[in-house]
């Protein structure tokens, strides 16, 4: 088994396609996004302060702004999300004693939020107030004033790389797991290598494990490279240092085992080498686009989001971002990880039924 692992690993490192798709391609995205932006949040999520005056025209107009997504939760949850940058700003509308500006709007944000998004919120609020003035209060100075001073709550700086790198890690693992395993075992079967292995005293399980271990070793080396470049070159957040890194490696191992199962299914179903790419893309393409790899699934229509949340890559991305940026342990991310294990059981049950030696 170890001899098969060593030989297969050597051949993987000699494969240009394996190196490009597993290391080079994800690194290109990381470098591009790393150089384009040093920080930023992804969605303009806001929340209303529970002490806000909601019985006025300003509040009703703000609630109808299409660019704002209002988060509903208790005050402790809102404060936690605000400190993490998931909520860009907390909006507080208060009545004043000034007849020329009856209401004031105060914003609370955090260091984790993109300052450009905070400024965007202020600009949108001023625009809405201007329209209210023109329509209903032409003789008043203004119906409301947005306070230029934004209160800041403590928060960890959230950079674009903190969102992009986990997605590219998932991209790398999924590509290698599906395409790499599918092509590998199909070619071994077509060239009768598997059949010859099967004729030797080695057990069939060890043949599979040997090839699988080589893929796992290669991809974990890839994960180390990606995380290392992201952390040291672009300040990718590892909250607890080596402890967080170790948790990410365990999570990557679990995800890779799952994605390799898809590869076994494709290699068993494919009738020729030319049918592997379209079959593999049935598993990979929807996840690349819909699993939060490049942008948050919150950007999709509400009716589509339940489907996005069913995809295994979604749960890998969510768990990795929670572990890396929020400092969650594997146990605290068990909700996402348990879904990965459910997928593993289902996928390998199918793979076991359709895997072929000849």
Q: What's the story with the biggest beta sheet?
A: 6 strands, mixed
Query: How many domains is the backbone divided into?
Result: 2
Global shape: elongated
Helix/strand structural class? alpha/beta
Question: What Rg, in angstroms, do the CA atoms define?
Answer: 25 Å
Low-confidence parts lasting 5 or more residues at pLDDT below 50? 36-42
Distance between the ends: 20 Å
Sheet-strand content, in percent, reads: 5-15%
Average pLDDT rating: 82
Order of helices and strands: HHEHEHEEHEEHHHHHHHH
Find the count of extended strands (DSSP E, 2+ residues): 6
Helical run tally: 13
Helix content: 55-70%
What's the quick description here?
The chain is α/β, with parallel strands linked by helices and 358 residues long. It has helices at residues 2-13, 16-36, 57-63, 75-83, 115-136, 160-190, 193-199, 204-234, 242-269, 276-290, 305-310, 312-326, 334-354, and strands at residues 45-48, 69-70, 89-95, 103-110, 144-146, 151-153. It folds into two domains: 2-37 and 160-354, no CATH class; 45-153, no CATH class.
Explain how this protein is built.
- The longest helix has 31 residues, at 160-190.
- The radius of gyration is 25 Å and the shape is elongated.
- Strands 1, 2, 3, 4, 5 and 6 form a six-stranded mixed beta sheet that branches.
- The protein contains 13 helices and six strands.
- With 358 residues, the protein is of the alpha/beta class.
- The protein has helices at 2-13, 16-36, 57-63, 75-83, 115-136, 160-190, 193-199, 204-234, 242-269, 276-290, 305-310, 312-326, 334-354, and strands at 45-48, 69-70, 89-95, 103-110, 144-146, 151-153.
């Amino acid at each position: 088994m170890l001899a098969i692992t060593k030989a297969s690993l050597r051949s993987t490192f000699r494969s240009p396609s394996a190196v490009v798709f597993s290391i080079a391609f994800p690194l290109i995205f990381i470098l591009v996004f790393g150089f384009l932006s040093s920080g930023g949040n992804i969605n303009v999520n806001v929340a209303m302060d529970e002490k806000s005056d909601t019985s006025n025209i300003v509040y009703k107009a703000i609630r109808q702004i299409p660019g704002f997504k209002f988060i509903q939760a208790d005050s402790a949850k809102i404060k936690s999300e605000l400190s993490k940058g998931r909520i860009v700003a907390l909006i507080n509308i208060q009545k004043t004693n000034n007849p020329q500006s009856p209401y004031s709007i105060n914003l609370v944000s955090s260091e984790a939020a993109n300052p450009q998004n905070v400024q965007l919120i202020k600009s949108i609020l001023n625009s809405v107030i201007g329209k209210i003035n023109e329509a209903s209060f032409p003789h008043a100075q203004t119906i409301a004033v947005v306070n230029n001073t934004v209160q800041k709550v403590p928060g960890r700086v959230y950079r674009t790389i903190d969102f992009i790198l986990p997605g590219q890690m998932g991209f790398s693992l999924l590509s290698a797991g599906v395409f790499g395993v599918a092509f590998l075992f199909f070619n071994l079967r077509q060239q009768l290598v598997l059949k010859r292995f099967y004729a030797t005293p080695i057990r069939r399980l060890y043949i599979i494990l040997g090839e699988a271990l080589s893929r796992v070793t290669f991809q974990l080396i890839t994960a180390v490279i990606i995380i290392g470049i992201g952390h040291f070159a672009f300040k990718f957040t590892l909250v607890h240092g080596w402890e967080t890194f170790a948790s990410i490696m365990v999570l990557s191992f679990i995800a890779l085992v799952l994605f390799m199962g898809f590869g076994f299914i494709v290699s068993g179903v494919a009738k020729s080498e030319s049918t592997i790419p379209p079959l593999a893309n049935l598993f990979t393409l929807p996840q690349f686009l819909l699993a939060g790899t490049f942008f948050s699934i919150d950007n999709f229509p509400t009716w589509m989001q339940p489907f996005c949340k069913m995809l295994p890559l979604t749960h890998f991305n969510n768990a990795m971002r929670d572990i890396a940026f929020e400092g969650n342990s594997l146990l605290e991310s068990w909700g996402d990880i348990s879904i990965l294990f459910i997928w593993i059981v289902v996928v390998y049950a199918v793979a076991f039924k359709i895997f072929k030696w000849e």
